Amino acid sequence: MPKAQETVLEIDLSALTHNYNYLKSKLQPKTKFLAVVKAFAYGSDSVEIAKHLEKLNVDYFAVAYVKEGVALRDAGIKTPILVLHPQSINFNTLINRCLEPSIYSNHVLDEFIKITEELDVQDYPIHLKFNTGLNRLGFKDKEIENVVSKIKHSPSVKIKSLFSHLAASEDFNELHFTQFQIKTFQHIAKQFENLSGEKPWLHLCNTSGILNYPEAHFNMVRSGIGLYGFGNSVEEDKNLKPIASLKSIVSQIHTIEKDETVGYNRAYTSQGTERTATIPIGHADGINRIYGNGNGFVVINNKKAPIIGNVCMDMIMVNVTDIECKEGDEVIIFNSEYKASNLSENAKTISYEIITAVSQRVKRIFLS
Ligand SMILES: *Cc1c(COP(=O)(O)O)cnc(C)c1O
């Protein structure tokens, strides 16, 4: 692997293939695979990730917002794209770029039907989202009759799928709640089929749902974090490979004497003669200020160097008193060995937040 000479996010596409194949191996052959590539494919690069997954014949993509789907279409992605949380101001663009909306409320359904009628389109594919307990987005089960009758009178749209989202699929303490969500979803699907006479696809599982609830895969699964190498458990993390490595270099080394201070607000005071290294990555690159003052660390020559003082916008300073290193040496913020989920033992966050935070200023490099 090339040594970093500036701050880079290295993305290993062979690890992506590995994760995709591993997750696919958990499915029945007929079950479709939707890859969630929202938020720049969880902080990596949605276009390169989608191109790679398209080559692997993934069935569907999902993004959160219309703008994210447009970026994929601009890059030539042809696979169907579900937009999980579109706003009606963007419905014209959505239709124009062949993106498929999640419809989660009567208000949104009415607005979407109105636009499809104005544009004189027929059978536009839509996906109905039901709320089975997350209480974030979705129709309540009680609303089914109303929704079905509205759609029966609207030839401009066609229900491609019904879906819902699990609240705690990674947490076996919530086993009963998850089972309740699965039952509720099955009940909704049955009612929908009875009332409409149609059998749209059904999908419920995110990554942890795929791994923990094989009985709930239905026609399709939606995976995000697993593709990027995290399984939300110690056991499953062993089967997956983090695709992204965040690396930088040592810009400068200082030797400071006892009682000298480091960084803004003089937040760190040296305990004796110490060596510090300045690294060109800061809170504008995704290193949250919470990691300052000893809460986070980087790795230099296989040793952990704690972040000292406050995280600056463009830089951090780390303590390298006990580490043999020199200016220009490579610095690992996270990789497949020092995982993003451990970047800080004290930050009380999750892999999702750390990897999606890597800002667009950081150069992306792709390894095949
Ligand atoms: C983000 C998202 C997913 C992906 O979840 P992971 O835990 O990353 O696999 C699936 N479905 C919906 C509705 C989402 O918003």
Automatic annotation (TrEMBL):
Pfam families linked: Ala_racemase_C, Ala_racemase_N
Catalytic activity: L-alanine = D-alanine
Record-annotated active site: 38 (proton acceptor), 264 (proton acceptor)
Pathway recorded for this protein: Amino-acid biosynthesis; D-alanine biosynthesis; D-alanine from L-alanine: step 1/1
Gene3D superfamilies named in the record: Alanine racemase (3.20.20.10), Lyase, Ornithine Decarboxylase, Chain A, domain 1 (2.40.37.10)
Required cofactor(s): pyridoxal 5'-phosphate
CDD domains noted in UniProt: PLPDE_III_AR
GO molecular function ontology, one term from the record: alanine racemase activity
The protein's Enzyme Commission number: 5.1.1.1
GO BP terms, alphabetized: D-alanine biosynthetic process
UniProt-listed InterPro entries: Ala_racemase, Ala_racemase/Decarboxylase_C, Ala_racemase_C, Ala_racemase_N, PLP-binding_barrel
Gene Ontology CC: one annotated term: cytosol
Modified residue annotations for N6-(pyridoxal phosphate)lysine: 38
UniProt keyword list: Isomerase, Pyridoxal phosphate
Binding-site list for substrate: 136, 313
Superkingdom of origin: Bacteria
Key word Isomerase present: yes
Protein purpose: Catalyzes the interconversion of L-alanine and D-alanine. May also act on other amino acids.
Family note: Belongs to the alanine racemase family.
Protein name: Alanine racemase
Protein source organism: Winogradskyella endarachnes
Lineage: Bacteria, Pseudomonadati, Bacteroidota, Flavobacteriia, Flavobacteriales
Originating gene: alr
